[in-house]
Amino acid sequence: MSWFAELAGKAESLLVNFDEQTGAALRNHNGPKQRKNDKKDFYLQTDPPWMQKKRPIPRAWKKVPPSTESKNNFPVGRSSPTRQASQSPLRNNDNARSGSPKPKKLSKKSSPLYTLNNCPKTMVGDMKDEFGMHYGLRQRRSSLPTDLDMVNNDEWVYKIQNLEIENVMLRNELNVLNQEVTELLSRLRKTEDELNNAQNKLETSSIQNGSINAENETLNSQLQQLKQKIYDLTNVEMSKYKEQNQSLETEICLLKDKNKELEEKLEEAITKAKDNEAAKLKLETELRHGQSTINELQNNLEKSKTECVRLEKEWETYKLRVKSMLHTKDNEIKALQDGLNLNEDTNVLMEQLEALKEERDMLSEATSRVRTECDEMKSYVSQLEARHSSAERVVAALRDALRDERGARNRVEAQCSALNKELKNLQMETGQTIASLRTALRDKDSELSHFRESSTSVRSTDTSALNVADYDVTRDVDTEKIHVLTQTLVQKQGKIDSLLADNNILRIQLEKLETKYKSEVVALRSNAHSVIHLQDTDCRVRPRSHVPDSALSALSMRIGVMIKRYPIFRLFIFIYMVRYCLRYIYSFMFIRYSKTEYYH
User: Fold this and answer.
1) What's the number of domains the chain is made of?
2) CB burial of residue 219 (10 Å; 0-12, 13-18, 19+)
3) Cβ atoms 223, 472 nearer than 8 A
4) Helices (H), 536-566
5) Do 48 and 147 fall into the same domain?
6) Are residues 321 and 455 in the same domain?
7) Which of 256-265, 400-409, 532-541 has the lowest mean pLDDT?
């Protein structure tokens, strides 16, 4: 109805404007309007052609006050459409002077059409100067009998023309107003029709509201039933979730116990590995010292053997020479005994015999010394052989220790594989439980969103018919329960992820220890092979390449070698760890975002 009020206001404003314009026209249609021209126009206005016959022109024309006052009091700035009509008396005066006056044709001249925007100043009331204010006084002054001679008939003609123009304008405005009134009446009829339609719609809407209220009551009963069902379902699911949480807690406790056992085993293995490393280092130092001493003794033996062989050869040659010399001397002695020829030659020979005897004694002493040295060397060689046998025993003990360590390593690898399988199974089970819990949560969220949408739709139909307080209380209780469940799930998932991270760290430590142990075993085997290569002739045929006992040990050795040699493999492990961390962060953020969306 606001547009109808606006139309009525516009009609009232138009009527007020029309009344004002008519009043202004009635006030101003008697007022004199003269043109602003030169003195020639003034002479023409004061001297019409039809007044020359009746009365001569007065000589004292300067004493006429109304013409000058009206000339000075007229506004100058505006150009009104009445100037076009004011030019007609000038043309009539020219025609009168030329000898052909036609005053009656002026009234029959076609006047232009005027509207509200295009109208003279007398119509709108723009003439608000001293001329309009003193109109009555001037009229009274000009109505005196002394001043009747000074009244100009051109002004009366001009006023009649202006009145005709104003009458035409008023007729046009009346036509416009009649058209607007007809339009307003048609709009009023339309508004009456619309009011009737609106009343009919109100009646139908009241009927529909009654039906909607009945539907709201039925929906309220359905909502209460649904709330009861939701409450029952939430209680059942809460019990299920509690049982699942208890089972998960028990599994987590078992995993913690297993992790503690694994940590203890790792600590024991680390201590054993440290003890083995210390013993290995000691044995390596002893082996190196024994190898150096054995090498020195072997060199000394070879030198002494060569010297003994040389001395034996010299002794045999000396024996042969001495035997030959003794034989010659015996022959000479026999010859001398037979001939008893004691000459100077015999004396010389006797001296030579004595010198030879002394040399024989010296050589016998040297041979005795060499024999003692040979005996000492033999005893030293026997000692070296005993040491060699003890070193062989140590090597055999080391081989037995290596076999025991290999067996322990195989057992530890079997345990690690079993633990890895158990961890994988636990990870699969936990992943399945988490996925099932997430799906259940999503289903519940979808159900809750569906119930919320249904409740919001019912509430939007008629909020006054619903018991909003009870619904809000139950909704708050449900949201608190869901919040508690989500928090517990997040905590359990965080614990599971932390346990998985600890297991991965322990697995990496085990792999590092295995690779270190394998590298040490390889170094020990290489050193042991080198020792056996020097002393034992049977071990020279054995190759240096170690043949692993099982496929798992070979795979672990290959993984260790790949980690040491290839940095890409290490980068792959680092990327795997970063991916695992990002997955944990993404899951945490997803759960938190789902919680925020649920509460909003």
Assistant:
1) 2
2) buried
3) no
4) 551-565
5) yes
6) yes
7) 532-541
